User: Fold this.
Amino acid sequence: MVFTRWHYFGEHGEKYHPHLNILCDGGWLPEEQLAELKDSIRRKLLPRSIAKGIGKDLEIQYRYSRSP
Assistant:
């Protein structure tokens, strides 16, 4: 099961800073496997040419929890 939620402002709602939270069933990932997955997601969502052109890249944060 996957849940998504868009946030259009930062932590305190002061500055426009859109980001997407995604929660999904899964498990702990080894560091190398997680790095490969993050790289794959970045390439699919933001082509390298655009990332270099705008001088920004996607930031992907990962947290694992045993409880929902």
About this structure: The longest strand covers residues 16-24. The chain has one domain: 2-54.
